[in-house]
Amino acid sequence: MVEIRPTTDEDLEVFVDTLHAAFGRFPETPGEDGGGVWWSALEMERNLLALAPDGRPVGTAGAYSFELTLPGETVVPVSGVTAVGVVPSHRRQGVLTAMMRHQLTELKGRGEVLSVLLASEALIYRRFGYGPATSTQRMTVRRHQSAFADPRAGTPAPGGSVELLRRADGGAVLEEVYDRYRRTRPGALSRPPRWWALGAGQPPVAKAPRHVAVHRDADGNPDGYASYSLDGETLTVDEIITADDAVFAALARFALDHDLVDKVVFKHVPPAHPLRYRFADYRAAEVSNDTDWLWVRVLDVPRALTARGWLSDGELVLDVHDPFFGERGRHLLTVRDGKAECVPTDRDPDLSLDVSDLGSVYLGGTAPSTLVGAGHIRAHHTEAAGLADALFRTERPPHCLHWF
């Protein structure tokens, strides 16, 4: 039987070594490539160690303190679960389940509404109640095919200008632009100031050498940026951050017009993004790596449903099963004027679903009817799936590109 205990700052080295052993890797040297190591932002007071009966550390689990933007531009605190691993000698012995139960029980006890994670393997986390809630994709464009189509009559031309900076000189601008952006995009996570200061994570949060194209509006205010690097004849854009589609296109055009480049790779593009339709040649953009990104775990169903905004009015009775905790609840969701009430009910359900499926539809990235068609959600009458689709839809698909 393993012991699960919280960590302190004194456990950092043991925690990091155990985690890397679980993944068969070795810790890199702090300060390589001009930036900090990814674990420099760990919150040791929120991490867990699993100990074998002889006291050896055999598993790790951690959590970051983030904010998540919900539909309706509501921002709520969430735990970003991370650094989950079990050393190979102790796998399939219940260590992971024990850590997840300890962690989720603790998060519920803290009164948290949601937790989120990035899944290293898609088969692992659904059994703990997490569901894939956002996706992202890679877009590769050959420069010789990259001409934009002529704009339709009446389409306003994007204004402003682009300034080129180095990552080392643009940290404050990146932090400011990202923070404004993430408050407008459902599914986006905050990047706490300490992440930027420590260079924790992946570029451009990490301080690895990068060029940064900063877009400024007509008044000179930064309203977007693109972080990129060049390797041979391939220019790779880490991310384009802006809330404005025209600014996104202007920054993409800046990258596509770079000399001595054969192709441009955009690593993170939201699903159904309009960039692809800007090309005169629709086949100019090759979409690949369409993959899940943020997974959501609903910890408190009524509070989660009343926290987000809604576009349509209506009522829906949800019968939600949480097999990991052995819980089931039937909830009447009533939406009026963008706000929801959620109360217990004994009315017949419209939909029956697992809590992981609720996580998938919660941000609007997956239509409930899709999961009905997949056999995950049970619709109790013919109108139920369509009603749920209308309620859970969002103006823009959720997107998260923060790595943690």
Automatic annotation (TrEMBL):
<feature type="binding site">
    <location>
        <begin position="84"/>
        <end position="86"/>
    </location>
    <ligand>
        <name>acetyl-CoA</name>
    </ligand>
</feature>
<feature type="binding site">
    <location>
        <begin position="92"/>
        <end position="97"/>
    </location>
    <ligand>
        <name>acetyl-CoA</name>
    </ligand>
</feature>
<keyword id="KW-0012">Acyltransferase</keyword>
<keyword id="KW-0808">Transferase</keyword>
<feature type="active site" description="Proton acceptor; via carboxylate">
    <location>
        <position position="404"/>
    </location>
</feature>
<dbReference type="InterPro" id="IPR041380">
    <property type="entry name" value="Acetyltransf_17"/>
</dbReference>
<comment type="subunit">
    <text>Homohexamer; trimer of dimers.</text>
</comment>
<dbReference type="Pfam" id="PF13530">
    <property type="entry name" value="SCP2_2"/>
</dbReference>
<dbReference type="InterPro" id="IPR000182">
    <property type="entry name" value="GNAT_dom"/>
</dbReference>
<feature type="domain" description="N-acetyltransferase">
    <location>
        <begin position="2"/>
        <end position="155"/>
    </location>
</feature>
<feature type="active site" description="Proton donor">
    <location>
        <position position="125"/>
    </location>
</feature>
<dbReference type="InterPro" id="IPR016181">
    <property type="entry name" value="Acyl_CoA_acyltransferase"/>
</dbReference>
<dbReference type="InterPro" id="IPR022902">
    <property type="entry name" value="NAcTrfase_Eis"/>
</dbReference>
<protein>
    <submittedName>
        <fullName>GNAT family N-acetyltransferase</fullName>
    </submittedName>
</protein>
<dbReference type="Pfam" id="PF13527">
    <property type="entry name" value="Acetyltransf_9"/>
</dbReference>
<dbReference type="InterPro" id="IPR051554">
    <property type="entry name" value="Acetyltransferase_Eis"/>
</dbReference>
<dbReference type="Pfam" id="PF17668">
    <property type="entry name" value="Acetyltransf_17"/>
</dbReference>
<dbReference type="InterPro" id="IPR025559">
    <property type="entry name" value="Eis_dom"/>
</dbReference>
<feature type="binding site">
    <location>
        <begin position="120"/>
        <end position="121"/>
    </location>
    <ligand>
        <name>acetyl-CoA</name>
    </ligand>
</feature>
<comment type="similarity">
    <text>Belongs to the acetyltransferase Eis family.</text>
</comment>
<dbReference type="InterPro" id="IPR036527">
    <property type="entry name" value="SCP2_sterol-bd_dom_sf"/>
</dbReference>
